[in-house]
Amino acid sequence: MISIEDALFKVKRNVNPLLKEDVKVIEKANGYYLYKDVISPINMPPYRQSAMDGYALHLHNDLHYKLIGEVKAGDGHEPNLKKGEAVRIFTGAPVPDTANAIMMQEKVISNNDTISIEHQINLEQNIRPLGEQVKEGDIALKKGTKLTPAGIGYLTSLGITEVSVYKKPSIAIVTTGNELIEPGQELKYGQIYESNSKMLQGVLYSLKFYDVTLHKVEDDYEKTVNLLRSIIKNNDLVLITGGISVGDYDYVGKALNELQVEEIFYKVQQKPGKPLFFGKKENTSIFALPGNPAAALTCFYVYVYIALQNMMERTDTELPRTQAKSISKFVKRGDRPQFLKAIYNDGEVELLEGQNSSMLQTFALSNALVFVPAEISEVHMGDVLETIVLPV
């Protein structure tokens, strides 16, 4: 059995970036990291652009201008303005080359074919210059940038339809146990509805990892070996829940051993989640998580999250941790360090009832995990606690 610190170190050291390129259509690239610099194919804006509704002017020394036309967004014609002439113009419209300033409409008095402005303005005022955001041939977004909805909108505005991104890992989730049945079926005596796979799939989806497959295997040694052999060969990350202990019908550990999976560690000095296994076979990382749902999810947030970030070249990235003042009491049983389900809000944290590793009801209300070291046996109100803020 190893410490939490050693387990974290071994995960970070043994999970390497995939460094594989993938090409995504721009609308499906949200949450991915750019594999290479994106070069702008155009100037943005692609023409001198009006920043507001008003009048485009060819400046002269007078405050009065002759109105010769109108330009609205999307117009393809370009009026030729002489000194002292103006055109009505609207936000986003192309500014004629012969106009050198725009006066906002609130400061203009219009009288048929003439206008009067309140005061003189500076050259190029209220005009967005050609290539103000980015110029043709320049880097629009650098390699390693995480694409967000704003980034997707920005690249789409440049006419870009697909991007080169870092491939996200393919992930297989395996659940074990004869007692598990799918929701929707009649629940018979001795059976429970299988929830771990949907829980883990849900958290992976929330983190924008979508290449996820679900598998179930009975408590049968040969079937466990055959299934694990196939999915380890065909995935970058394998998450197994249940069957990792040493009971008569726990076959996962024996199967991993037969498949020559390298054991990095097995069992961590913590609560919940003591029977955690982490290993590798070639380029595939394997986590055998505890079968108890709350323990499995805790181990995911503490360890699997880091593995996923390392695969995406976000080296050593953990969930954010902060110091928070406890507004509740807690008595810790046993001498293991413990992760407690909690609600964090504005520098304060509430430790919740129902910390059993099999119970998800409390986890469903939580937005944080509080870490209580081995040497602390009791938490008092006002104590400052290390708090892991969970992704929403």
Q: Determine the strand fraction and express it as a percent band.
A: 25-35%
Q: What global shape is seen?
A: elongated
Question: Biggest sheet: strands side by side, in what order?
Answer: 7-4-6-5-9-8
Helix content: 10-25%
Mean pLDDT: 94
CATH class call of the largest domain: Alpha Beta
Number of helices: 7
The CATH homologous superfamily of the largest domain is termed: MoaB/Mog-like domain
Q: Which secondary-structure class do the elements indicate?
A: alpha+beta
The CATH architecture of the largest domain can be given as 3-Layer(aba) Sandwich
Number of strands: 27
> Gyration radius, to the nearest Å?
30 Å
The major sheet is characterized as: 6 strands, mixed
CATH fold annotation of the largest domain? Molybdenum Cofactor Biosythetic Enzyme, Chain A
CA(first)-CA(last) distance? 32 Å
Note poorly predicted spans.
Answer: none
Total domain count: 4
Describe the structure.
With 392 residues, this protein is α+β, with helices and mostly antiparallel strands. It folds into four domains: 4-19 and 168-311, Molybdenum Cofactor Biosythetic Enzyme, Chain A (3-Layer(aba) Sandwich); 21-43 and 135-166, Molybdopterin biosynthesis moea protein, domain 2, CATH 3.90.105; 49-128, Beta Complex (Molybdopterin biosynthesis moeA protein, domain 3); 321-389, Beta-clip (Beta Barrel), CATH 2.40.340. The protein contains seven helices and 27 strands. It has helices at 4-14, 149-157, 196-206, 221-234, 252-258, 293-311, 361-365, and strands spanning 21-25, 38-39, 49-50, 54-57, 64-71, 85-89, 101-104, 108-111, 114-117, 127-128, 139-141, 162-166, 171-176, 180-181, 192-193, 212-217, 237-241, 262-266, 277-281, 284-289, 321-326, 330-331, 338-345, 348-351, 368-372, 378-379, 384-389. Helix 4 (221-234) crosses helix 5 (252-258). The longest helix is centred in the last third of the chain and has 19 residues, at 293-311. This is Molybdopterin molybdenumtransferase.
